[in-house]
Design a protein that fits this description.
five-stranded antiparallel beta sheet, Structural Genomics Hypothetical 15.5 Kd Protein In mrcA-pckA Intergenic Region, Chain A, 27% strand, S4_RNA-bd_sf, 2 helices
């Protein structure tokens, strides 16, 4: 799954366009490499997202196209 779509589906970032812009600005890193919006994310990948002064580091647990609000926390684990 594309990283911009994963960030939107997991509700880490509210809109896919914002996720795409974050990738374009170099704020998203997958396994130590700066991510482009079309880069694929797989189970077990470590993703770092820079939000202002903080960094959120997560591990991908599941890749699903449709995730309900209640289950959105089950697709990733905060490290």
């Amino acid at each position: 799954m594309r990283i911009d779509k994963f960030l939107k589906n997991s509700r880490i970032i509210k809109r896919r366009t914002v996720a795409k812009e974050s990738c374009d600005q170099g704020r998203v890193i997958i396994n130590g490499k700066i991510a482009k919006p079309g880069d694929e994310v797989e189970v077990g990948d470590i993703v770092e997202i820079k939000f202002g002064q903080g960094i959120m580091k997560i591990e991908v647990l599941s890749v699903q196209n449709n995730v309900s609000r209640d289950n959105s926390k089950e697709v990733f684990k905060v490290l």
